[in-house]
């Protein structure tokens, strides 16, 4: 019979064959799968657009007229080279994440071919893709005292296939009423700075104030295009600069007296802020310590502008060694939180220091569904929080006005998350601190929650001895996660022991981007093969490849209390009910390894609710058609330590008193597995230690006509007070932060 076609049907399972991404490894693709379901390179680029990408997996007729359409409405023109290779140009988008696109070869009548493009936050794009403002500070301070002369721009000239280029200036604005339906974002072409100059990769000029009211635009970007296109033409091959403060083209008023010009702007911004709703009330409080901030990876992520792992270059936060940002924007106003810490690990507050952390009216990373202010990635934030910082703090001396509107939050309402881990020859450490070993073979629910339909599932496979034969124990080989109707992420070891990450069943590559904004979650891959999934509820899942098995940690905020079940138990601070079955009956915490085996088996997943991808014969036969819990596999419950065994001596020196490590060395005969287990176990203990709650008594002010010593407001800290000359102190000379979260003594004052 006639086979079905993938034309217009990519991603679907058809009657006689498949157009799903798993069809290739299963060998069930429709014959024309590669013709209609497109693979592209590069697969990502800035949301500003203008990037040329190649359709890799098929040739087109060289005379075809190609139209590329993104999100079913934004059209850009494509082209076909002489050898039949097709290219599309990415469009300007006001969002990040994977964007569906289609291709037409009949001048836009039908769009049978399709693929996805990854749109990326402009500052997460590699420097090589942008044109570089040489000495960027000079561009952004040009016209202030002592800053003048030439400005230079460089770019990779091979990025544009042309001999002559134009350099354009674009400005960003948001129009309409704040926080209303008619609030809209727009990038607008302003004027052409240089026309028909050679595409050499370098351009220098002496800037002059822009003509007419263009000099009113103070936040924007440069675009380089081939001279053959018309001014401001949209979605054409382009190289963009970084977004920046346009000091260099501002009018005579700025150049004559930058301080006065900026002061007017700062006061105007301050008045505008007065009328806007207070976003501070709904942003999450900061972690109290640097240790908490770095451990709470489900809710906070390194702020690239101040990173302890990159040498703590904290230009905007003098005195800080590390800052983090809250990953999720606040629910109503899409605002962002930032938290900075000094070398002692203590939070720095703007009340005490200009190096303090400042929250953001617009979250720097934007927030779903993007598209409209205040949710535009990067640019909304620039408009409300960055250009205003230039007005008040960098171009004039009015930083107190900025800090008044953007004060640091302290940590009085911060509650650390709870952590659970699984690793090695699966050892489980639950949210409430119980630990046990379950060595079933199959697919199991590690944690699920009715609060957000969170599901974390783990697959275990038989471990192998160093000589390749199978051992009578198992280890985690795959973990799959989803929350509500988010994308599904799976991390697994492939059959040749490579770590793979799947997004909705498709293997994805981190070769271009280590951070991805996905549906209902953010995904981050570190250089050492550790994958973090950050869900919109604030729950986090960390998965690491470790000695041939996966190591897993799940972090759940306090709101999940009494809302979890599965192998990681019932998170409620009580270990007695950890072994709760699906039918809600419980088993004693002193159960034998054999009884624990039954508890584990009870949490096997069913095909209907499995999140895993079965894209090989092996997986289909063993886990899809086979039992989800292999009842015939009986593991070693308690390994025997034979004093005559030469491995035992090495094991003792490696593991010391770590029972998990000893267990894994004996059951797998591998010191490497034991070492990985020991490391994972130590990581978990350290994490739990770092997430211990810390009591904060909140910020204390200095008395009028006096000063204070001390800026640490956590349990046990002392703040002392001194009055200026000719004043006398009444009230407490020093106050101590107490267990109750309140300060001892009374508020001091200085009287003449």
Automatic annotation (TrEMBL):
GO terms for cellular component: membrane. This is Sushi domain-containing protein 2. Residues 2-41 form the SMB domain. Keywords: Disulfide bond, Membrane, Sushi, Transmembrane, Transmembrane helix. Residues 418-611 form the VWFD domain. PROSITE patterns: AMOP (PS50856), SMB_1 (PS00524), SMB_2 (PS50958), SUSHI (PS50923), VWFD (PS51233). Its main location: membrane. SUPFAM superfamilies: Complement control module/SCR domain (SSF57535), Somatomedin B domain (SSF90188). The keyword Transmembrane applies. Residues 258-406 form the AMOP domain. Disulfide bonds join 723-750. The keyword Membrane applies. InterPro entries: AMOP_dom, C8-3_MUC4, Epithelial_Barrier/Signaling, Ig-like_fold, Somatomedin_B-like_dom_sf, Somatomedin_B_dom, Sushi/SCR/CCP_sf, Sushi_SCR_CCP_dom. It is found in: Membrane. Residues 695-752 form the Sushi domain.
